[in-house]
Amino acid sequence: MQLTAVEKLMYEVMKAIYDSSIPISFKGSMVLKACLLEAGYSEETRHTVDIDANWNTDTPPSAEQMTESLQKALQNSGIDLNVNLYRMYGEGRSAGFELTDSVTGEIYFTMDIDVNRPIPPTKIYEVEGLRFRGAAPSQMIADKLSAISTEKIFRRIKDVVDLYYLSKAFSFDHADVQRALKNSGRTLGNFSDFLYDTDALRHAYEKFRFEGDVRKPPFDEVYESVKAYIKDEIPNRKPKDLER
């Protein structure tokens, strides 16, 4: 699995934050890559240009506190990027940051930080000598499973793709996933759209872009692999057109 220059820089930023005293753990695509690499998965995976994280403290941090803390962490690690807040967090909304070139102002990538959400189980990952704290595999599976179990699936095709990757590297542990769902306050939908609206799902997948020269597996390969992987969580239901 190859890392882009931007992804390598993102891991350096994640290490800088881990080395600081900021109460942040990471999640999302960058943690997924680390998770897959650690498990020995060698095929190319989709690239990303954002970092996802959780910030957990006893009191809600201010915009200035978050920005200054992140900037100081980068400076202490010799990373010459500016941190700019472009979206303050709120109810159901993450804080959004742009990390830019200190001279040209070019945006290299963004960071979305959820504040004081339920604390997920985490572990320490290491990619090319860069250590950071990230969501445990069971939590990533649970989060993605929750997303694709509802009508959100058409906006979250990347979660279907990520479950396809995870299915190649990790066995599905029903008990662990259920525990992760409960701890994070997430629930499962009825998987109706995943199971019975495959034409719309195929259309959404075909529109989803894989950057660079990363192989985009055929939809049927992805869909059947994911369906088999999560079979223990899918309720026994009749198709929509048979329901009365």
Shape: globular
Mean pLDDT over the full residue set = 92
Strand content: 15-25%
Largest sheet: 5 strands, mixed
What distance lies between the first and last C-alpha atoms, to the nearest angstrom? Answer: 48 Å
Number of H- or I-type helical stretches = 9
**What is the topology, as strand order, of the major beta sheet?**
1-2-5-4-3
Q: Compute the gyration radius: what is it?
A: 19 Å
**Order of helical and strand elements:** HEHEHEEEEEHHHHHH
Q: Which secondary-structure class do the elements indicate?
A: alpha+beta
Please report the total strand number as a whole number. 7
Proportion in helices = 40-55%
Low-confidence stretches: none
Describe the secondary structure blueprint for this structure:
Blueprint: H1 5-19, E1 24-27, H2 29-38, E2 50-55, H3 63-76, E3 81-87, E4 95-101, E5 107-115, E6 122-127, E7 130-135, H4 137-148, H5 157-167, H6 174-183, H7 192-196, H8 198-207, H9 219-229
Parallel strand pairs: 2-5
Antiparallel strand pairs: 1-2, 3-4, 4-5, 6-7
Question: Could you walk me through the main structural features you see in this protein, from its secondary elements to its overall organization?
Answer:
This protein has 244 residues and is α+β, with helices and mostly antiparallel strands. It contains 9 helices and 7 strands; from the N terminus they run αβαβαβββββαααααα. The protein has a 5-stranded mixed β-sheet. The radius of gyration is 19 Å and the shape is globular.
